[in-house]
Amino acid sequence: MPDAVPAISALACDPVTEFHSWEYLRHNQRRQEHLASLGLDLAGASVLEVGAGIGDHTTFFLDRGCRVTSTEGRPENLEILRQRFPQLDIRQLDMERPDLQFAEPFDIIYCYGLLYHLQDPAPAIDYMAQWCRRLLLLETCVTFTDGDAINPVAEPVEYASQAVSGTGCRPNRRWLLNELRKHFPYVYLPATQPWHEQFPLEWTAPPAAGLLTRAVFIASRQSLDNPLLLTEIPSRQRRH
Known about the structure:
Blueprint: H1 15-19, H2 22-37, E1 46-49, H3 58-62, E2 67-72, H4 75-84, E3 89-92, E4 106-112, H5 121-130, E5 132-142, E6 152-154, E7 167-169, H6 173-181, E8 186-190, E9 192-193, E10 213-220, E11 229-230, E12 238-239
Parallel strand pairs: 1-2, 1-4, 2-3, 4-5, 9-12
Antiparallel strand pairs: 5-10, 6-7, 8-10, 8-11
């Protein structure tokens, strides 16, 4: 962990250019295709979106008639988010120190691509659980390591998509499963993975050096009778 957070003097590129690169757009498409394939009851729900960036995931829920509150930690991203969705309740929320209060819990908490940009993911999971009435949808980078370490990593603060603090984390699937089970009676991993190389199918050996690896978790207040959801960590998954 660094002794001090580096100052952000200038972004490496503007947020729209970064988030709308071919790589990001493709990645978002594959993740949301996969989420839709799971057959979860999402339509018409109240949704808290954390780490919304500039809102490239937001319409997934708006198009399903959801009532969305979007949050983001970086001011430069918030400005664009508010320009794109002036009708939404949009608030600044630093998930390193989450203290924002709401009138009532949300049916769904959506946390895709944020958790691994935090120095300490446990308080963020605790906070999301406090405001979650039904489902926490979580996608994050993970490692193949054993044990309970969260594996801190340095991230460039000058990029709008990276850790505000300059330090992120790469916990393994077991750590995440155990942490989610502290707050939810039912926690699942999908039997399937998105059609993207960062979502491995075989978990018996680490991937090539330098390749990010990701996993999806569904935490629920109620048992979900869904053949696509597994209660234990799979060593092998398939494409949906």
